[in-house]
Amino acid sequence: MGQLFDSIDAKLRTWIEAQPMWFVATAPLAADGHVNMSPRGHDAFVVLGERRVGWVDYTGSGVETIAHVRENARVCLMFSSFGQRPRIVRLHGHGFVHLPGEPEFEEVVALKPEHPSTRAVITVDVTRISDSCGWGVPVMEMAGERDLIRQHAEKKGPDGLEEYRARKNALSIDGLPGLPIGGSASS
Question: What is the pTM of this model?
Answer without folding.
Answer: 0.93
